[in-house]
Specification:
alpha+beta, 5-stranded mixed β-sheet, two-stranded antiparallel sheet, 48% helix
Length: 233
């Protein structure tokens, strides 16, 4: 293991989610989670500045969980060769049409402050303030100053793990996990219909709809509707 890998592993191992969001990620909508990443400044290791705390804050936006299959994943853009090999293994293990959930996130950093107080005291004060506000969608993360983004990724992994069971149960109760013809989950068919309506209203581009149909291998099935939509624009 090289030095960089060791640093990443160390940062992940020493990340602590001090305050979890009190709600799971929404199954049928977007979830906005505000976060504070608190850390001792890197320079404290050489300067005795242990009564200072670095506070990074921002927002993680979790898009609506997407219903996918291993076949669909193999047609996503932007993944490495290793990732695609993994998707191929999923197809062999579970079949090309096994439904699953795919989560996407956007990080919006808001700022950085350094306060003159030690880390435990700042965590305590911040927790008390959030308790008073009864804020269910704010998280406090104790992380590493020089690798704070690793701490954020560990947080994203944990909130996904805590939410997936609830999301799957709600989709199952809504009948979205059943398979329709062509090996496409019922929920994915519903998404395609939503995208047709959005493209008709001009909320998304026809290219986005075309790309989604191709990912499902369903363009031929929907091509008459698609070309009628494009001609009508």
């Amino acid at each position: 293991m090289d030095n960089e890998s060791e640093r990443i592993e160390y940062a992940a191992r020493h990340t602590e989610i001090v305050r979890h969001p009190r709600q799971h990620l929404a199954t049928f909508g977007i979830t906005n989670i505000y976060y504070y990443i608190l850390s001792e400044p890197t320079y404290s290791e050489i300067s005795e500045a242990t009564n200072e705390t670095v506070i990074r804050e921002g927002r993680v936006i979790a898009e609506r969980p997407k219903l996918v299959t291993p076949y669909y994943l193999t047609h996503l853009e932007g993944f490495s060769y290793d990732a695609r090999q993994y998707f191929e293994k999923l197809m062999m293990m579970h079949g090309p049409n096994a439904p699953g959930l795919y989560y996407t996130y956007k990080n919006e950093p808001k700022g950085l402050n350094i306060v003159s107080d030690n880390l435990p005291a700042v965590i305590g004060k911040m927790n008390d303030d959030l308790d008073k506000k009864n804020d269910p969608l704010t998280a406090i993360i104790k992380g590493q100053d020089d690798m704070w983004d690793v701490s954020l990724l560990k947080f994203i992994y944990e909130i996904t793990s805590r939410s997936v069971q609830s999301n799957v149960a709600q989709m199952g109760a809504a009948g979205m996990l059943g398979m329709s013809h062509g090996g496409i989950p019922v929920g994915a068919r519903q998404t395609i219909e939503e995208m047709f309506a959005q493209a008709h209203r001009g909320e998304i581009k026809a290219h986005d709809l075309e790309r989604e149909l191709n990912r499902w291998g369903a363009f031929e099935e929907y091509q008459d509707r698609f070309f009628a939509l494009v001609k009508g624009k």
